[in-house]
């Protein structure tokens, strides 16, 4: 079942000749994890703001569960948890108040909203921050607050703008673990914007890549990789100055001293690995094209 159906969407801003979104058509299915990648100014946030009804399209149509967004004002806030990059509206609320009021506004009773507040504080391991105001929090703590607020009341759809920015590695792992579990247990549809293709690859089921306001790629990463690049990557790690012997015909990139990246075809794998002298290397890694490779391919196209 389609959650979002976006058709021929265009968005222009006053005083700008270039379209911020240029003829975008995209469908998001119920229960999927969809990642939206693109560089600064690609049009990702503009697209998402239209999906949560904060901006009106210049032309085109967005439907949420087959209903145009502009027909029912409460259709989006009751069904979509949106995490923006910034949210000054939360500055005058404590962490606990923001969670409680959001859950209550999404239809939970007072008692249920209190329970939801406590659940989220525990889930995100932030109980000590309950009575602190948003304006007193660090950048990473404010990001966790916005993420928890988006989830308050357990909306069936989450749209998250850069959910792991400003977070340390431990918190980033917690974010992806929680989102995977929400999707697995509740069937929550998750749409997120990120610049970090390496992290995104761990969780997404389908990816859209934007460049200059256009959606230039859309599909499962495995399918897109096959179209873009079917070569394998072989990373070799060795003691600097003691270079290993490798077939001369293989394209080789010197990442840094003691670290090479080689590209090889699938039918070369066995022969190349058999030629490696393991006494000359400390470690090696063999893998297919990554989501980052895919992203860079489309981002760098003219």
Notable traits:
302 residues, alpha/beta, Rossmann fold, Alpha-Beta Plaits, 2 domains, six-stranded mixed beta sheet, four-stranded antiparallel beta sheet, 14 strands
Layout of strands and helices, then pairs:
Blueprint: E1 2-11, E2 21-29, E3 33-38, H1 44-51, E4 59-64, E5 67-68, H2 75-79, E6 80-83, H3 95-105, H4 110-123, H5 139-151, E7 157-161, H6 169-186, E8 189-194, H7 197-200, E9 206-211, E10 214-219, H8 221-228, E11 232-237, E12 252-256, E13 259-264, H9 269-275, E14 283-287, H10 291-299
Could you explain how this protein is built, in words?
By secondary structure, the protein is α/β, with parallel strands linked by helices. Helices cover 32% and strands 27% of the residues. It has helices at residues 44-51, 75-79, 95-105, 110-123, 139-151, 169-186, 197-200, 221-228, 269-275, 291-299, and strands at residues 2-11, 21-29, 33-38, 59-64, 67-68, 80-83, 157-161, 189-194, 206-211, 214-219, 232-237, 252-256, 259-264, 283-287. Helix 3 crosses helix 4 and helix 3 packs parallel to helix 5. The longest helix is centred in the middle third of the chain and has 18 residues, at 169-186. It is globular, with a radius of gyration of 23 Å. The mean pLDDT is 90.
């Amino acid at each position: 079942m389609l959650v979002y159906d976006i058709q021929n969407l265009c968005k222009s801003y006053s005083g700008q000749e270039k379209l911020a979104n240029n003829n975008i058509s995209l469908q998001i299915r119920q229960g999927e994890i969809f990642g939206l990648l693109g560089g600064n100014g690609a049009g990702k946030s503009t697209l998402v703001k239209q999906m949560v009804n904060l901006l009106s399209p210049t032309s085109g149509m967005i439907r949420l569960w087959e209903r145009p967004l502009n027909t029912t004002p409460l259709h989006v806030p009751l069904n979509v948890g949106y995490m923006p990059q910034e949210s000054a509206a939360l500055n005058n609320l404590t962490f606990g108040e923001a969670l409680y009021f959001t859950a209550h506004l999404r239809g939970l009773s007072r008692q249920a909203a209190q329970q939801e507040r406590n659940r989220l504080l525990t889930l995100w391991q932030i109980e000590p921050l309950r009575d602190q105001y948003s304006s007193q929090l660090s950048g990473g703590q404010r990001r966790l607050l916005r993420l928890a607020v988006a989830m308050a009341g357990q909306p069936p759809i989450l749209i998250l703008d850069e959910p792991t920015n400003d977070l340390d590695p431990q918190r980033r792992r917690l974010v992806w673990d929680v989102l995977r579990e929400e999707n697995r247990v509740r069937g929550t549809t998750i749409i997120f914007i990120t610049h970090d293709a390496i992290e995104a690859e761990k969780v997404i089921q389908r990816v859209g890549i934007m460049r200059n306001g256009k959606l230039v790629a859309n599909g499962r990463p495995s399918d897109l990789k096959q179209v873009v690049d079917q070569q394998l990557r072989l990373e070799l790690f060795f003691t600097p100055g003691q270079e290993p012997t490798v077939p001369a015909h293989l394209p080789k990139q010197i990442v840094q001293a003691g670290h090479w990246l080689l590209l090889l075809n699938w039918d070369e794998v066995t022969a190349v690995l058999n030629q490696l002298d393991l006494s000359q290397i400390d470690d090696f890694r063999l893998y297919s094209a990554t989501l980052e490779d895919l992203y860079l391919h489309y981002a760098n196209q003219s």
